[in-house]
Structures
1.
Amino acid sequence: MDLTQKRLPAILIIVLVGILIFQYTANTSNTKKLIDFETCEIYLQDNQINSKKYLNEYDSKCLDLKNFNTSP
């Protein structure tokens, strides 16, 4: 009985890590990182529910192009 009590936490940890890895790989295939060209803001497009989640991050190359196009 002592042997199973010592192995149980290790087995649970391995199972939980496996579940986390599975969820991560399943989720990364459903989202795409895209750029909103009007604001140059980076967002994630979720294909399952067809929604956008803005990350409050901006693409520097897009901002440089916008500034280059608007400068006289």
2.
Amino acid sequence: MKTTLVLAILACVGLTVAAQKNGIECDACKAFASEIKKFVEKQVPLEEVEKEAKALCDMLPIEQLKDFCEKHLIPEVDKLYEELDKETPEDACKLLELC
């Protein structure tokens, strides 16, 4: 699952290189939220999801993306966890004002 997130985020970054900053942030949030949603669907406890989310950010090879993940996505894991029970990753990222 960790590899899936890394590849998804890298693919998003590659597809949006020419896009504005918000486009990249939105794509990164949606990729991250998609992974969190998988945990929510499996009813993984929030504490475990928080640990996995931090590990996923640590695995990112691009420093700027890693910083974004740590500063903007990790602090929102609890909100994402709650929202993704009823929302799509895109809608959850809109609620966080990242899309």
